[in-house]
Design a protein that fits this description.
two-stranded antiparallel ribbon, 374 residues, alpha/beta, binds flavin mononucleotide, TIM Barrel, globular
């Protein structure tokens, strides 16, 4: 299928990236802009939906730090919402926060996603994404949703069509894995069906539903999807910095990248990738003092939204991901994961958040599994 004008041909990008960088020189963008339907993104770098993490406050932080072209909510059960028995927490902020903002839905019933998409259209969200990748047993098994639908491309097509009916002019996208198992790779078929049904873009996490994060991302399989469809394909999986983002674009020809786990410990990763994509010098990470301020602000905003101690309970999992690779992080994490309330949290940050610049050789924040993908 013709793919010119959509593929990223960045052969020269990594060469350019290797040149000594001069902050004052005029730069030429090396990665093409990404358009999803009628929406032109400022950068082709997306923040993944991450259940349990990408709530209103986290999304604010990502927006503030810059570089991210499209931010997603956590996955939301369309049926749960429509039938009225889902706590609407995952929609907190969606009505009023800045655009662009993508909302992800999961379900297996076209009627449910159609109705939920209609409600999201009333909220004027920027993109509606459908989850066909969640590998969690409860979602795949009992619910027959998420990555289970990779076995059933026809239903995927009906889901995309129904979502489009509800969404009106809002672009609808799909997020998929390669297939349910390595014996059943359906990504190309699912992507083609989604495209025919009107999807505006596809994100491919380059693993099957059975693969753990220890299995390398199959970049060849992502490249096959890029070849198979004319809509933009966004590559996802193990992108942790500017180099890995450039590498996967170059290898697969994808139109953009999506980052999940790494942004939880380094939400500034988007601006690093954005700089590389624009052929600019990569900015340094915030100093530890700035990271400390950011963590305190994050906590304060969680307390404002949820009260205390819930806001403190919610900050624990974020705080535990801060300081990847920094000396003293272990002692901080050991305490902060047990913080009881706002005062206790503040005491632990004051006492144990490291202020030196010593780095330990540990790879940041990639140990999380998709446990809370529900
Ligand atoms: C804790 C956790 C929650 C996740 N929640 C979602 C989700 O709600 N929707 C979704 O499409 N993917 C979800 N994912 C998958 C990520 O979006 C992403 O596809 C995957 O982690 C690979 O990207 P990464 O290597 O950058 O982490 C989740 C992953 C993790 C670790």
């Amino acid at each position: 299928m013709e793919s010119a004008g959509r593929r990223n041909d960045i052969e020269s990008a990594s060469d350019r990236h290797e040149q000594p960088q001069d902050a004052t020189r005029t730069t030429v963008p090396v990665v093409a802009p990404l358009r999803i339907g009628s929406l032109e993104l400022e950068t082709p770098i997306l923040q993944a939906p991450i259940a349990g993490f990408t709530d209103l406050v986290f999304r604010r932080i990502v927006r503030e730090l810059g570089g991210c072209g499209l931010i997603y909510t956590e996955m939301i059960s369309a049926g749960g919402w429509v039938k009225g028995n889902i706590p609407p927490d995952r929609l907190i902020g969606v009505k009023d926060e800045p655009r662009p903002l993508g909302v992800q839905l999961w379900d297996r019933e076209p009627e449910m996603v159609e109705e939920a998409a209609g409600r999201l259209a009333d909220l004027d969200v920027s993109v509606i994404d459908l989850n066909f990748g969640c590998p969690k047993k409860r979602i795949m098994g009992k619910q027959g949703s998420g990555a289970q639908l990779l076995r059933d491309p026809a239903t995927v097509g009906r889901m995309v069509e129904a979502t489009k009916r509800g969404a009106g002019d809002i672009p609808v996208t799909a997020k998929i894995r390669l297939g349910p198992t390595s014996d059943l790779i359906t990504a190309v078929e699912v992507a083609r069906v989604s495209e025919q049904a009107g999807a505006a873009a596809i994100t491919v996490h380059g693993r099957t539903a059975r693969d753990g994060y220890g299995i390398p991302v199959a970049r060849d399989r992502i490249a096959e999807v890029v070849e198979a469809v004319a809509i933009p394909v966004i590559a996802n999986g193990d992108i942790v910095d500017a180099a890995s983002a450039l590498e996967i674009l170059e290898y697969t020809g994808a139109a953009g990248v999506m980052v999940a786990r790494r942004c939880l410990s380094a939400p500034w990763v988007f601006r690093e990738i954005a700089a590389a994509f624009a052929g600019e010098p990569i900015p340094p990470p915030p100093a530890l003092e700035q990271q400390r301020e950011q963590l305190l602000r994050h906590h304060q905003q969680l307390v404002e939204v949820h009260g205390d101690p819930l806001g403190t309970v919610l900050i624990r999992k974020f705080a535990a991901r801060y300081l990847a690779g920094v000396k003293g992080a272990k002692a901080f994490r050991a305490q902060v994961t047990g913080a009881r309330d706002a005062a206790d949290f503040r005491r632990i940050v004051d006492a144990l958040f490291p202020t030196g610049d010593e780095i330990e050789p540990d790879v940041a924040g990639q140990s999380l599994v998709e446990e809370s993908c529900e």
